[in-house]
Amino acid sequence: MPGRASRSLVAGLAACLAVSGLVPGAILGAFLGAGEAQASAFDFMPAPQTDLNRLYRIDRVTGAVSSCQFALKEGTVGVTLCFGPGEGAGAQAPGEYGLVASNHEREGGVFRVNRRTGEMSVCYVFEEKVVCTPPESVSPAATAQAPATPDTTAATR
């Protein structure tokens, strides 16, 4: 793999420079860490549905969601079907996004969460695109005024 060999070469060069004292170790560490941050730009989560081989991908900064799954195709080893972002699944305001699956064995979608704001959306494949519900969050005011029994018929604001 060229990527792995390149990282090994850069790490080796960095070690030589640090030992020789030509470049301070802190600068090298920051330089090498930047490459690692770029390498983890996406997170992946399988759909919880037990008879579906679908994997969702999210851009950790923009929140854009896409999905791929395996399908059989006669005369081949199979194909990878991918679904791009549709309504609500495109780039959002910059944040710290992730995917969370429910424990519902028949659920084909996943939750998109913004760890900075607490907002959540449900994302799923619909008509060959990934779609997501509008982001929702429970506001501190709604939490303070919440009744003992939650209202499950409408969105919480």
The SSE string, one letter per element, is HHEEEEEEEEH
What profile does the largest beta sheet have? 4 strands, antiparallel
Helix coverage percent of residues?
A: 25-40%
Helix-strand category: alpha+beta
The mean pLDDT is 78
The number of E-state strands comes to: 8
Strand order of the largest sheet: 1-2-3-4
Q: Span from first to last CA?
A: 49 Å
Q: Report the total helices.
A: 3
- Strand proportion, as a percent range, falls in 25-35%
What does this structure look like?
This protein has 157 residues and is α+β, with helices and mostly antiparallel strands. The protein has helices at residues 2-20, 25-39, 140-145, and strands at residues 42-46, 54-59, 65-71, 79-83, 97-100, 110-114, 120-126, 129-132. Strand 7 (120-126) and strand 8 (129-132) form a beta hairpin. The longest helix is centred in the N-terminal third of the chain and has 19 residues, at 2-20. It is globular and about 60 Å long. Residues 1-20 and 22-37 have low confidence and may be disordered.
